[in-house]
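Morning F.,

Quick status update on the modeling queue. The single chain you submitted on Monday has been processed. Sequence for confirmation:
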Amino acid sequence: MSFLKRPNDFLFRALVIVASTSLAVLCLLVIYSVVMRYVFSDAPDYVEPIALLLVIVIAMFGAALKVREGGHIGLDSLVKNLSEKGQAIAAGIQHLCLIAFAAAVFFGCLQMAETTIDDRIPIIGIPEAVRYLIPVVASVCIALFSFEHLLALFVKKQK
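Structure tokens below.
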């Protein structure tokens, strides 16, 4: 199991750094934009497209981080009332669904990235595909983290 845990530990730390840095940069960028707009009446036009990319990074990488931590939005009152075996089955189904979701995001966003690679984001001039490559990376992380949880369930079952 350590063959997947160690790389996932590194990946988790990298995602934390990128998401945290993105959040800090987003805060500074918004403050800068507000000061420039309301104090100097000179709002920079590049803030909005950069902020949108940062929000995508924060949301998608944050979702992957919550998968690794085992956190999710949901009602677990039913699952808590199940037997230990029932809870393990529910957790397995949850992670299989997350892997299916990650695969759908991966292939859908990859296709969108391929079709928008020649388009440019107005003002900042980078390829439009960047918006779709961020969820591609996050979906790979979600699948890896879910697979790690499935392996942990399987190893626990074997003991």
